[in-house]
């Protein structure tokens, strides 16, 4: 079973934050400073370390958006065909009867 790229990326981001935070807090740094340093450090590290995961997530989301757009276009086309058929079947109707 393949993992979803969103779950993989999110888990890696959490680990990239939690590990430095735990280390900094364990060595006695104040919680606020540990949070701040871990947040900044994990943000910078994720730019370099999570490139492949971020690209996989981006590809996954783009593919999903394309499928959704294709389904929407098909539904619109089907609705338009049904509407055209109804207008042709009803005598005296025009395109302005909306």
Number of helices: 3
Question: Which range best describes the helical content: under 10%, 10-25%, 25-40%, 40-55%, 55-70% or over 70%?
Answer: over 70%
**Rg measurement, Å:** 26 Å
Question: Could you list the spans in which at least 5 consecutive residues all have pLDDT below 50?
Answer: none
Count of the domains: 1
- The secondary-structure class comes to mainly alpha
Please, could you describe this protein's structure?
The structure is a single chain. The chain is an all-alpha fold and 98 residues long. It has one domain. 82% of the residues lie in helices and 0% in strands. It is built from three helices and no strands. Helix 1 packs antiparallel against helix 2 and helix 1 packs antiparallel against helix 3.
Care to give the gist of this entry?
The chain is an all-alpha fold.
Based on the model shown, name its key terms:
98 residues, 0% strand, rod-shaped
Structural topology:
Elements: H1 5-26, H2 31-49, H3 51-89
